[in-house]
Amino acid sequence: MEIPVIQFPNENKEFIDNPYPFLQKIREQSAVVLDEISSLQLITRFEDVKNVQTSKNFSSSSAEGFEQASSSMIKKEDFEYFYKTEEFSLLNLEGQLHGDLRNLVAKAFSNRQVQELRPFMEFKSKELMNRLRGSEFDLLSDYAQPYSIAVIGKLLGVPETMYDEFLDWSNKIVKMYDLKVSKDDAELAEKAAHDFYEFTLDLINQKIAKPEDDMITRLANVTENDQRLTKNQIICTVILLLNAGHEATVNTIGNSMVALSRNNIETKNLHQQHNVKNIIEELIRYDSPLQFFQRWVLEDSIIGGYEIKKGSKVAILLGSANRDKEAFDEPDTINFERSNLNHTSFGGGVHFCLGAHLARLELEVSFNNLLDTSVNLREEPQRTGAFGIRGFKKVLVNI
Ligand code: HEM
Prior knowledge:
Layout (H helix, E strand, L loop, with lengths): L4 E2 L6 H5 L2 H10 L2 E4 L5 E3 L2 H9 L3 E2 L20 H7 L8 H13 L3 H5 L2 H15 L3 E3 H18 L6 H12 L8 H27 L5 H7 L1 E2 L2 E2 L2 H32 L7 H4 L2 H11 L5 E6 L3 E3 L2 E3 L4 E5 H4 L34 H15 L5 E2 L18 E3 L1
Parallel strand pairs: 1-2, 3-11
Antiparallel strand pairs: 2-3, 4-8, 5-13, 6-7, 8-11, 9-10, 12-13
Bound molecules: protoporphyrin IX containing FE.
The site of protoporphyrin IX containing FE has 25 residues, from helix 12 and helix 16.
């Protein structure tokens, strides 16, 4: 059976504004569609996305001999530092190395250490919100970004004076993860990766010389079965945690408040009517901040009756899976009392989000404060234009 060929409209404004009708169309048409622009086989349905996340036939890193082409024209040799910061990113590793590295990082990033940050999160969230109350402000740049960068910065032990620089580096680097990357953006990302790499290396050396009670110090000292992380591995992990640690959380806050407003759901006291944890999970399902991840195919496989060839690539469409009516009743409706909250937005299998415990707590503290009041949109927010990392340029509100 031939996989239906489509042109994925990731540069079409109408699609970016609301991708879900198109995603529903392709999901109902076929379990797999081939995007002729990126040559990616797109996996559209919930069960298949879950299977790809957990099957050993699909891998985040390519096997030896596989063509190293990506969906963009980014050449490895031109982007030395970007690839250096990616070399030991957990997201790109598989097998023993991934497992060993993930165990070491998880040891330095336990639930207890995250829970200990709750008082700091509550303080920071209240401090920022009290300053903004009564005025018109951008929920993203005035609240969500400074809040989440302060939390991850505090956890890692990064000096506060560097937060703005981190945000700038991170914003530039994450552009490399979209379906199509312009040459200008790639060059800016390379420069940011260079500066980020060198700064983090210095910081690690300082923490080794003078240990502190923070995660970079723990990463430098953590051991298991006589293994410890190398400096390169720590750098890649710190950069991954800083990047992964704020973009998705910031966009979840923006996407969620806009979704509530567009669905005429009053924010004030919503957390008195429904469990705040369920509110958060349902809103992450409804408009996922991360819409797709790519995987290499290690063995010939069958998905939805289609042959998926070894050596090719698939993209799992998380946002599409979360709107699959086979998995969720009335998937286009926000329902905080769903019996099934098992969405795909935090991933699954060996790459399941390592920071989900931190993200959930950060969101809980923020939502508890935001839902104490009426959050009113002051203008129609504009999407950033990216499909993969789904968010708004700004979300102007008053509270
Ligand atoms: C709402 C917020 C977040 C969402 C929706 C999210 C989502 C995800 C997803 C979907 C993956 C799997 C990627 C794949 O399948 O290849 C992932 C992996 C990861 N996330 Fe998150 N994330 C969030 C917040 C965070 C935070 C706050 C941190 C840490 C500070 C974090 C750290 C990571 C790491 C380290 C991985 C890689 C795990 C591995 O490959 O073994 N994430 N995240």
